[in-house]
Design a protein that fits this description.
It is an enzyme of class 5 (isomerase). Provides the (R)-glutamate required for cell wall biosynthesis. Its EC number is 5.1.1.3. Pathway: Cell wall biogenesis; peptidoglycan biosynthesis. It catalyses: L-glutamate = D-glutamate. With about 260 residues, this protein is α/β, with parallel strands linked by helices. The chain contains 13 helices and ten strands. The strands form two sheets. A six-stranded parallel beta sheet has the order 4-3-1-2-9-10, sandwiched between helices. Strands 6-5-7-8 form a four-stranded parallel beta sheet. Strand 7, helix 10 and strand 8 form a beta-alpha-beta unit.
């Protein structure tokens, strides 16, 4: 039975955690979110890398972690090389699901909904050039929807007017994507609301691919599932009143406790 750490700046990584745990239920899971530095898209690159490497390394040592999943597109594009240098265990990142979207689109028009940083990064444009040649890929960066996803998990109603404003140019006009890449792990938390505004559009995210990769790595490292009672716990970097409000939602996702990370 492996100890698996799923890490994000906020709640978005829960969409990836859900996919992995559904595929591999008989392991121990630890979900850590860096709410003290949320959102990562607003940190400088050096600050993000320092925060991510320091926190993840500490969690790995304290919890005897066997495998790390960086369930954040922003952190994955920036911090993976440093994390892999710092740690001796497997580290899995997430990338926008351009490749599967390119095979699924029927009209050749794909939307990529991500954070402004992910949309702007050369890495994203390299993925598009490599896996979606000849396709029309429309890019949209938004931080507002990251906040909306966080608020939805905390029990607040999604601002559908805001969502409609963000997606406006994909809802009407000649160039409407028939396949939408949810390029931030927060956005699958809004999939039903997005689908309501874009009926018939296929939504694609990285969760299933990450779960498949984790399964392969656990098998190759001989960390097979075993009989027993697996545990799942959540950790945050600042256990303030706002974070405490997330205890019940996290328990609904199967994470039994919420604890502040020890320095």
């Amino acid at each position: 039975m492996a100890n698996i750490l799923v890490f994000d700046s906020g709640m978005g990584g829960l969409s990836v955690y859900r996919e992995i745990r559904q595929s591999l239920p008989n392991h121990n899971y630890y979900y850590c979110f860096d709410n003290a530095n949320f959102p990562y898209g607003e940190l400088s690159e050096p600050a993000l890398i320092q925060a991510c490497v320091g926190l993840v390394s500490r969690m790995v040592a304290q919890l005897a972690i066997d495998l790390v999943v960086i369930a954040c597109n922003t952190a994955s594009t920036l911090a993976l090389p440093a994390l892999r240098s710092a740690l001796s265990i497997p580290v899995v990142g997430v990338v926008p699901a351009i490749k599967p979207a390119a095979t699924l689109t029927r009209n050749g028009c794909i939307g990529l909904l991500a954070t402004p940083g992910t949309v702007a990064r050369p890495y994203t444009h390299e993925l598009i050039a490599q896996f979606a040649p000849g396709k029309r890929v429309l890019l949209k960066g938004t931080t507002e929807l990251v906040i909306e996803a966080e608020q939805k998990l905390a029990g607040k109603a999604v601002d559908m007017a805001l969502l409609q404003t963000v997606l406006a140019d994909w809802l009407t006009g000649e160039e409407r994507p028939d396949t939408l890449v949810l390029g931030c792990t927060h956005f699958p938390l809004l999939d039903s609301e997005i689908q309501d505004l874009m009926p018939g559009c296929r939504l694609v995210d990285s969760g299933a691919a990450v779960a498949k990769r984790v399964s392969h790595l656990l098998a190759s490292h001989d960390m097979t599932e075993s009989v027993g009672t697996p545990q799942a716990h959540a950790y945050c970097t600042r256990l303030d009143d706002e974070a405490k409000k997330l205890t019940a939602p996290l328990q609904a996702w199967g994470l039994s406790t919420l604890t502040e990370v020890m320095g």
